[in-house]
Amino acid sequence: MEEKCVDKKVKDETKEILKNYPKEKDKLIAILNDIQERFGYIPKQAQEEVSEYLSIPMAQIYGVITFYSRFTLSPKGKYNISICLGTACFVKGSQNLLDRAKERLQIEPGQVTPDGKFSIDDVRCVGACGLAPVFMVNDEVYGNATVKEFDEVIDKYMKE
Amino acid sequence: MVNLKIDGKEISVEEGTTILEAARQNGIDIPTLCFLKDINEVGDCRMCIVEVEGRRGFATSCIQKVEEGMNVSTTSNAVIEARKTVLDLILSNHHRDCLTCNRNGNCELQAIAEKLHVDNVQFEGEKTQKPIDDKSPSIVRDANKCILCRRCVSTCKKVQEIGAIDCVNRGFESCISTSYDSSLNDVNCTFCGQCIEACPTAALREKENIQDVWRKIRDKEAYVVVQTAPAVRVALGEEFGMPIGTNVTGKMVTALKRIGFDKVFDTNTGADLTIMEEANEFIERLKNNGVLPMITSCSPGWVRFAEQNFPENMEHLSSCKSPHQMFGAIIKSYFAEKYNVPKEKICTVSVMPCVAKKYECTRPEMEVDGIRDVDYVITTRELAKMIKQANINFVDLEDTNFDQPMGEASGAGAIFGTTGGVMEAAVRTAVDTLEGKSIDKVEYKEVRGEKGIKEAVLNVAGKEIKIAVASGLANARKIMEQIKEGKSPYHFIEIMACPGGCVMGGGQPIKNSKTRATVDVAQLRKNAIYTIDEKSTIRKSHENPVMKQLYEEFLEKPGSHIAHKYLHVSK
Amino acid sequence: MKTIEDIEKIRKAKREELDLRINTSADTREKHILVCRGTGCTSSKSPKIIENFRRIIEEKNIKNVRVIQTGCFGLCAKGPIVIIRPEETFYAHVKPEDCEEIIQSHICEGKKVERLLCKDIDGSVVDKLDDLTFYKKQKRIALKNCGVIDPEDIDEYIAFDGYKALEKVLTQMTPDEVIDVVSKSGLRGRGGAGFPTGKKWSFAKMEEGKEKYIICNADEGDPGAFMDRSILEGDPNCVIEAMAIAGYAIGANQGYIYVRAEYPIAVQRLKIAIKQAREYGLLGENIFGTGFKFDVDIRLGAGAFVCGEETALLESVEGKRGQPRVKPPYPASKGLFAKPTVINNVETLANITKIILNGAEWYASIGTEKSKGTKVFALGGNVNNVGLVEVPMGTTLREIVYDIGGGIPNGREFKAAQTGGPSGGCIPVQHLDTPIDYESLSSIGSMMGSGGLIVMDDSKCMVDIARFYLDFTVSESCGKCTPCRIGTKRMLEILTRMCEGKAEQDDIYKLETLANNIKNASVCGLGQTAPNPVLSTLKYFKEEYEEHVSDKKCRAGHCKELCDIKIDPQKCKGCGLCKRNCPVNAISGEVKNPHVIDQSKCIKCGTCVDKCPFKAISK
């Protein structure tokens, strides 16, 4: 029952988003961006709505979603840790941060911890090259980061 | 005309020709993999790259048009090295179990590996490992053999306008898949099997029933009856090296008997039966203000498409089962009784040009009193494999006739194998019925031919009847959208899922890209079918003596209660 | 809708008001506190700084002081940056809690806050922005307005000659004359390949058809490059105006800006700029009453590097997977929705208005023979002055790295500079004096690229750098064509083997074979240039490859499997600093006794090496 309510909510809210767009196939990515923004991922029910609205087959929509790294098929963790692997950060050792994150949380980039609390993303350039190496927890930016500092931040969120 | 040089040879070709076509027209055989004329011209695989003098980078010969004064090399050192590397890379991510592969001997990748004389794979590395999808009764999808040419995707999306499969993920992880990587069984796939025909390797193939059929044949208790669809006989020979469009009916029957089937019947007879029922149903609808237009229901890919996309318009479909299902039901009832064979011992096998028929025979309504109409469907390709397994030298076989008592079929039944055929056969019978006499006109050429949607107006018994014929699901969609909007001008419509009809079905011998680009396979097979019709002494279904006998002895009359029980889906 | 006269009125009034922004001797009692709201400074809390300034000013009821958010000043390493005009005082690393002091001391008491003043490379305190060595060799054309105007106020843009070029073009020039000026200026595409912009426009102009498109390529995917983002964040109108000019030149009425969704600030500023331009009638029907119609829409990318490739971008704008098309046909004849389309990069467009206003000759006088004008670089990596620099073409790499960039930090040596991102190559020390232009860079195996310039010191392993770029390419390859899809993966596998000490003797040969064939056989620019980082490092640092393969050694001490971190017991004083900082507790030892590293636990992060005050730990 609860699941059905969620389904309906997703469908209704997707319909709201679709109202802002004409039925033109080239609007697909813009619509998916809105859905991603709205739900934090792109639920299957939302895809079904879009498929019907734009007359685009489900497989094609799935193909588009899996092509663009911004789109995800499942929600991210409560704390999404983005580690910048842009060149500027990489040459300043951000790989060590990523390795540490994987070790601490026992998940790979793109995955969520079983309790849903953390997820890791390896991102390409968050635009804070002056602060390299950089990682983010949700929208909070941590610059000039060392493994030690990274650990402290993770510890802080683990306690929450 | 455009003048250019390919491999030192001065040639002159029409403007707008691609380098690939120009080369082929002049005996230069550039290898291709992803190229499928008019369907998939994307330049993905990079096999057809050539060097054009003065150009940076290689040209993609399947796309690049010829230009005046071009100097093309298809065999320069750089091109050969790059092409070999590309092939090496494809092979490095391909499950190379060629000897035990479904497409052994008929694989475009295998052929290119031989042509380029690959003696080892240099760049081995991680290979794609994906589960094989064999959940559907019709199609097996094996991503581990996929080379990402996307010929299937273009066929599904552009030709059939279904889009059940598409390219998903990106980079090395790219694969051809469905929404959420579901089984084809669980998505909007219609099982038309056109993707199989497009696939250069065995990444898409039919779900084989060869072993099931052998088991039944070897089972002494089982009485195994086989029937063969109209389109099988004009294509089967191709699997034995015979020219496209050779009619091998006699050899086929001989082979089936040699394989060990107890009876060999002709689905053309079943087609005649379908016409008896379908023509009657149409006339009834016409007379009684029934739902019109009425649409044929012989093509299970089409029926599945209609159910998935136009569930609210299903009453337009004829309630008739398809010919082989009808015939299966008759074999297990009328024939069983007449020849005193216990119906539960009968195993009916249909040889079909189609993979959707494999699914059709499993549909719940395809049975009478718990007895399945058809037990197994095998494709033309599977039959060819069985003939080879049985050590039969097919080409040299003598001819044999189909078995009696139901061995007689009309020319109308024969043309079921091509687009427009069902309509023409139905019209032959309907016109006679409506006019109340035998009309001389037999051939209705207006419903023959290449066009995706053909239409005609017939004047019958003072009435104007508008008919249409569509083949390919993209055209089916157009017809259905019209109906949905209430704007369909027609009374009677024939729809077949595969472009060109059953002769080009998903179970037919697979033609490689080069053959498809240079030979009109559909036309050759169709010609053979129309020749069978022309040479038939009986050309109208209702004039087939088997029909007369069948109705007298068993079915009473078309549309009767008993006919509905055995031959229709709505009982 | 505003007439030419209306706009001129705004321009005049506003220009007077904003004189102090560019004139240090402006005679005014006003002060403008400019706070950088570029992405870098924004992530280190510059919005809070602005908020604090405004609150304090209000609380103290101070008049004649305005707080203005601007785009990037360039010297990101010093961020968050606050500049006070007209005196041009440069405060670095400002924290929200410093606002009170700045207002009190600088504004109220007229005393500069010494401790926050920016220090130059030599440690000297710099009073004015222009005195910084970082700015001395720069020439700002594309970045002219960045850090000067409020990007969210079109009036400020208009004040500094904004929309004057569009006015000139629409009222005084024919489309052919516009193309002629752009052609004669020598401007070439700043997205990487350097195709002459005027030529591109003329191809599209020659095409028949009413429907044509202008696309601004703002899909800046090169990791470590942020030139385009900074322009959009700091001066969005200059791009919009240039698109309208391009539209007039080729006969297009619709423009699209394809911008990464990961650039939220840039997207927001663009939205505001488009809205304001529409309100003024600078976009829309009958612009300046000339009958010319042009509008711009934003299309968001969704995280695919390949969409920076122009045909992939077109696919993406059409709502599809960003898979490149085989060329020809080129976009100029068959582009968006199969219509003639010009696709220009942000920085390219940012030069247009200046060329129109100052003339082709002026622009062509800057730069080298074949590469005219300036180029913006995002300078990053192991260099002191990380940031955004704009220099005339022909400036040498040495000037950028040492004069502008302030050299290599931590007393390390320069090893290589990487230009062109994943499509470019590594330039070794012997080519430091190469003038930067399209031809010179490609002749030494790199490329201009979009403008990422990453400096690497001698602690970097070039095999690992090549592996890093290939890793990027592999995860960003669209998967359409075989060489890129499988070939780059195989290259990455080989490079990974090398870095892990598992390579075999013929792996270098295999790598080279693959690299050359992928370069030749791939469909698009991404695949064709993907091997460049490998080819250039093979060219200049082959001995490092050989060491990795034959000796299983990494001279830079970077590849973990090929090195151990060791503590020299002679030098170790047993202070315990390494032990305390080790994130995995791999170091043990008693106080005042030499410590040891448990190699089975060590993750080779190098923290201990950096922390050891006695240089006792080395790789």
Q: Architecture of the largest domain in chain A, CATH level 2?
A: 3-Layer(aba) Sandwich
Kindly provide the radius of gyration of chain A, computed on alpha-carbon positions and rounded to a whole number of angstroms.
Answer: 18 Å
Give the radius of gyration of chain C.
26 Å
Which structural category do the helix and sheet elements of chain A fall into? alpha+beta
Report the principal-axis shape of chain C. globular
Uncertain spans of chain C: none
CATH superfamily of the largest domain in chain A: Glutaredoxin
Report the mean per-residue pLDDT of chain C as an integer. Answer: 93
CATH class of the largest domain in chain C: Alpha Beta
The CATH homologous superfamily of the largest domain in chain C is named NADH-ubiquinone oxidoreductase 51kDa subunit
Describe what you observe in this structure:
The complex is a heterotrimer of chains A (160), B (571) and C (619). A four-stranded mixed sheet of chain A has the order 2-1-3-4, with helices on one face. The two termini of chain A are 31 Å apart. Chain A has seven helices and four strands, in the order ααααβααβββα. In chain A, helix 1 (2-18) packs across helix 2, helix 1 (2-18) runs parallel beside helix 3 and helix 2 (28-39) packs antiparallel against helix 3. Chain A has two domains: 2-67; 79-159, 3-Layer(aba) Sandwich (Glutaredoxin). In chain A, strand 3 (135-137) and strand 4 form a beta hairpin. Chain A has helices at residues 2-18, 28-39, 44-54, 58-67, 87-91, 94-105, 147-159, and strands at residues 79-84, 118-123, 135-137, 140-142. Chain A is 50% helix and 11% strand. Chain A is α+β, with helices and mostly antiparallel strands and 160 residues long. The model of chain A has no long low-confidence stretch (mean pLDDT 90). With 571 residues, chain B is of the alpha/beta class. Chain B has three domains: 2-92, Ubiquitin-like (UB roll); 128-206, Alpha-Beta Plaits (2-Layer Sandwich), CATH 3.30.70.20; 211-567, Rossmann fold, CATH 3.40.50. In chain B, helix 8 packs across helix 10 and helix 8 (267-287) packs across helix 14. With 619 residues, chain C is α/β, with parallel strands linked by helices. Chain C folds into five domains: 16-134, Glutaredoxin (3-Layer(aba) Sandwich); 162-364, NADH-ubiquinone oxidoreductase 51kDa subunit (Rossmann fold, 3-Layer(aba) Sandwich), CATH 3.40.50.11540; 374-457, Ubiquitin-like (UB roll) (Roll); 462-551, de novo design (two linked rop proteins) (Up-down Bundle), CATH 1.20.1440; 564-618, Alpha-Beta Plaits (2-Layer Sandwich), CATH 3.30.70. Helices cover 40% and strands 14% of the residues of chain C. Chain C has a five-stranded mixed sheet, with helices on both faces. In chain C, a hairpin with a 3-residue loop joins strand 3 (82-85) and strand 4 (89-91). Chain C is globular. Chain C starts with a helix and ends with a strand. The model of chain C has no long low-confidence stretch (mean pLDDT 93). At the B-C interface, helix 2 of B face helix 19, helix 20 and helix 21 of C.
